[in-house]
Amino acid sequence: MKRRALLLALALDTLGEPPAWAHPVVWMGSFLKAARMRWTATTPGGQWAEGAAGWALGTILSGGVGALTSRLPWPAQGALLKPLLARRALFGAVEEVHSALESGDLPEARRLLSWHLVSRDTATLDVPGVAGAAIASLAENLCDSVVAPLLAARVGGLGLTATYRFTNTADALWGYRTPELEWAGKAAAHADDTLNLVPARLTAGCALLAAGGRGWHVWARDRRVTPSPNGGHPMSAFAGALGVRLEKRGVYVLNAAGRPPAPADLPRALALARRTLLVAAACVMLPGTWRTP
């Protein structure tokens, strides 16, 4: 995809999200929920097959529709790419959590964190826990919701971008180690891991550049601590750059020697995310760097 189409999509993203009825990611979520309601298998193999079939069908439909747009003029491609990005929504969600923490409303901060950013139970999180979870989610979702779609669009146009967004949405809805989803979500989870291998490392590298190299030693040490092969890269880079400890209780600790996150660290994290996105966008748009259709 042409660089000017990517720039147009980023510019349009400042206007906010389209209504739900016109949002392709909402359509993807509806497809995934409908597919899940049709699962009947009770064995691991059957559950894996049902989940893989649902993911494959959705990928073909999403990628096929995206590929059909490849001959449209670049302004139309940029406009269609915009709803596959979520920069403003992500940053706005973190700002809402920060506002609640700053006003001393911890229950509201927990609710906003759970509603917008994380799937974990937030009921017992204290102020550092809420702030840390928001920073970790910001770092990881900066990759998933902005950098990865931009890179996919540059490399493979809207077809690859739609394929990525559907897979990432499938992993977000199905990629849990619960009895119902342990096997059914495996195909989508593994596909998402594969598609994010390059974007996650690109996001981490750009974050370290945006931070002037601060935190590289934390990234080098902790990037493989998380269960995800990709999420630890941007999260550890942010933890090191900001000098904070990011922890998901019983799962991982990033930058263990760092100080507990405070509400004031959320604006710092947002500033780092904005600088990271600028660096990442510049990298994605370098002439001749990425093969384009």
Describe this structure in words.
This protein has helices at residues 3-13, 24-37, 44-68, 74-81, 87-102, 106-116, 127-174, 186-195, 197-210, 216-222, 232-242, 265-284, and strands at residues 246-248, 252-254. Helix 2 packs antiparallel against helix 3. It has one domain (3-284). It is globular. Strands 1-2 form a two-stranded antiparallel sheet. With 293 residues, the chain is mainly α. A hairpin with a 3-residue loop joins strand 1 (246-248) and strand 2 (252-254).
List the helices and strands and how they pair.
Elements: H1 3-13, H2 24-37, H3 44-68, H4 74-81, H5 87-102, H6 106-116, H7 127-174, H8 186-195, H9 197-210, H10 216-222, H11 232-242, E1 246-248, E2 252-254, H12 265-284
Antiparallel strand pairs: 1-2
Helix pairs in contact: 1-4, 2-3, 2-7, 3-7, 5-6, 5-7, 6-7, 7-8, 7-9, 7-11, 7-12, 9-11, 9-12, 10-11
What labels would you give this structure?
67% helix; mainly alpha; 293 residues; two-stranded antiparallel ribbon; 12 helices
Widest sheet, order of strands: 1-2
Task: Give the overall form.
Answer: globular
Number of β-strand runs: 2
Percent of residues in β-strands = under 5%
Task: Specify Rg, calculated over alpha carbons.
Answer: 19 Å
Distance between the termini: 7 Å
Total helical segments? 12
Overall mean pLDDT: 95
Oligomer: single chain
Largest sheet, strands/sense/barrel? 2 strands, antiparallel
Helix content: 55-70%
Overall number of domains: 1
Class from helix and strand fractions:
mainly alpha
Task: Name the helix and strand elements from N-terminus to C-terminus, one letter apiece.
Answer: HHHHHHHHHHHEEH
Low-confidence stretches: none
